[in-house]
Amino acid sequence: MGYLSQKKRQTRENIFFWTTAVILALFTARNFADAKDYAGFFNLFHLYCLSGVLMFGALWRRKYRAVLFFGLLLLINFTVLSSSTNIFLSDDFNGKQALTFAFVPEGKPLLGSADANVISAGSVIINHHYTAPYVVLNYATPITLVMVDFRQAQDDEYPIIFGNLRDFMLTQDNPVIIFGEFGISSWNKSFKQFMKISGLSVKNRLLFTKNSPYNIFSTPSFYVLGFKEMGISDICIEEKDGKKIVRINGSFNPDNS
């Protein structure tokens, strides 16, 4: 390749890397201030992945300044992402009590533990559109499971949704686990505020339930929110009668206080 051709190629590469760097920097700054999803599919997880891909691409082309810049964006996106969710691994916890349950669309929580004695069951009234079925299980101490499905919810409905979930938690004297399809990502501002107020945190790895478990271009909206001494050893998606069922195996330490 001639000298002029090499210069033209290097110029094109520089334009590509620094143009994408500016675009990613703008999105990263916006997400750092108030993380949100764009166009229903482009989200913070994609910013994280793109930052990593472009960092290694710049390293391969020996664009070391661009490597440092993309590395900084990768670190920022990872920090924001990991502050609200797990990325590749669920929170494993070796608790004294095993707990197995499943999300069933348009159904009730499916319990898999043989010793899961149901004390009571009912539905949380969220608003005139949504209810959330719940069960109170009796182990060494009672524990409440709440299953949600807010995939059709609009943005302006979430303050009411999370407010009513919080109010329900205040009526419970035992630990609460909320799981299911929330319809938004956990780094959404309303979601993060709810976790901060409720004391719950995301226990599962990122799970893509739209169309395919491998559809990373969708927004991850399935979460298991649990208390401190609770974790997940396995979570998987199964299909039955045309419906996607998410099974969760975990454990927790009963509160004997």
What does this structure look like?
- The chain has 257 residues and is α+β, with helices and mostly antiparallel strands.
- Helix content is 35%, strand content 26%.
- The chain is built from five helices and ten strands, in the order H-H-H-E-E-E-E-E-H-E-H-E-E-E-E.
- The protein has helices at 3-34, 44-60, 64-82, 158-170, 189-198; strands at residues 97-103, 110-111, 117-125, 131-138, 142-149, 176-181, 201-202, 222-226, 230-240, 243-252.
- It has a six-stranded mixed beta sheet with strand order 3-4-5-6-8-7, covered by helices on one side. The chain has a four-stranded antiparallel beta sheet with strand order 2-1-10-9, with no helix packed on it.
- Helix 1 (3-34) packs parallel to helix 3 (64-82), helix 2 packs antiparallel against helix 3 (64-82) and helix 4 runs parallel beside helix 5.
- The termini are far apart.
Content-based structural category: alpha+beta
Shape: elongated
Rg value? 22 Å
> Mean of the pLDDT scores?
86
The number of distinct β-strands equals 10
User: Widest sheet: strand order?
Assistant: 3-4-5-6-8-7
Percent helix, as a range, is 25-40%
What does the main sheet amount to? Answer: 6 strands, mixed
SS element count, helices = 5
| N→C terminal distance | 75 Å
N-to-C SSE string, H for helix and E for strand: HHHEEEEEHEHEEEE
Strand content: 25-35%
Which stretches are low in confidence, meaning pLDDT under 50 for 5 or more residues running? none
